[in-house]
Specification:
Strand content: 5-15%
Largest sheet: 2 strands, antiparallel
Helix content: 55-70%
Number of helices: 2
Shape: elongated
Radius of gyration: 18 Å
Strand order of the largest sheet: 1-2
Structural class: alpha+beta
């Protein structure tokens, strides 16, 4: 199931709130944010569908689209 904008925002907000409430180190806080963004990107990559046209001789994808 694709992620929605609200899900992405909620995920990042939850990580930031957790960092704000439990972490005193700026580096640790940054790690939490990076982890949240990575989880979103990973989810998007897993759910992505690539469509397009490839020549029969195994050439590159043309008119490609990622959804």
């Amino acid at each position: 199931m694709p992620l929605t904008e609200n899900q992405v925002k909620a995920n990042i907000k939850a990580k930031l709130q957790q960092a704000r409430n439990n972490i005193t180190s700026a580096d640790e806080s940054l790690d939490f944010l990076v982890e949240a963004i990575y989880e979103v990107v990973k989810s998007l990559l897993q759910d992505a569908t690539v469509t397009g046209i490839c020549p029969p001789n195994g050439g590159i994808l043309t008119q490609g689209k990622i959804t």
